[in-house]
Amino acid sequence: MSLLLVRHGHAGHKEQPSRTDRRRGLTQRGLRQAEQLVDVIVPLRPRRIISSPFTRCLETVAPLAAAIGIEVETDSALTPSRTKKAFELVRDLPSGVVVCTHGEVMGSLLARLAEEGGVDLERRPPGLKGCVWELTMRSGKLLGAKYIAP
C-alpha cells in the first residue's frame, strides 16, 4: 500500500480569509465526492487517516473512516500556509496512511516531493477537489505518484 494524499471535496468558494473559513463545510457535490472516496480507498486497506482540522477536510474523510471503522486524527500541519510542517509530516509517514489536506498544501507538497525525488508527475498538482494522489515512497523519498480523479 502507498501513502494516499486526498484533496478535500468541493466546499464552494471562500469569500475572504477569516476564522469562519475553518468551519466551511462541503457542498452537496463535495459530499458525493467524499462518498466516492470510499470505493476508491477502502480496497487499498488504509490503516490510518490524518486530516487537517478544517471542517471540509474532516467531512471529506468521514465516510471513509466510518466504512473502515477507524478514528480520524487531526494535525494542524495540514492546514493552509503550513506547507513546511506538512512536508515534514508527510515525508515521514509509513505506507497505509490517508492524508486529507487543502489544494495549496497539496500542490506545494507534491511539487517539492517530485522535485526532490526526481519524479515527473502525470499532471500538474494539486488536481481537482476530491482527488487522490497515490504516492509510492521509500525512506522519505517519492518514487512514483498516480493521480486518481474524483
What does this structure look like?
Helices cover 35% and strands 21% of the residues. The chain has 150 residues and is of the alpha/beta class. It has a single domain, classed as Phosphoglycerate mutase-like (Rossmann fold). Strands 3-2-4-1-5-6 form a six-stranded mixed β-sheet, with helices on both faces. Helix 2 (55-68) links the parallel strand 2 and strand 3 (72-74). It is globular, with a radius of gyration of 14 Å. The model has no long low-confidence stretch (mean pLDDT 92).
Low-confidence sequence ranges? none
**Strand order, biggest sheet?**
3-2-4-1-5-6
CA-to-CA gap between the ends?
20 Å
Q: Any guess at the CATH architecture?
A: 3-Layer(aba) Sandwich
Number of individual domains: 1
**Quick one: CATH class?**
Alpha Beta
Report the sheet with the most strands, covering strand number, pairing sense and barrel closure: 6 strands, mixed
CATH superfamily: Phosphoglycerate mutase-like
Provide the succession of SSEs. EHEHEHEHEE
How does the helix and strand content classify structurally? Answer: alpha/beta
According to DSSP, the number of beta strands is: 6
Alpha carbon gyration radius: 14 Å
Principal-axis shape equals globular
Strand content: 15-25%
Number of helices: 4
Which quaternary structure do these chains form?
A: single chain
Percent in helix: 25-40%
Which whole number gives the mean pLDDT?
A: 92
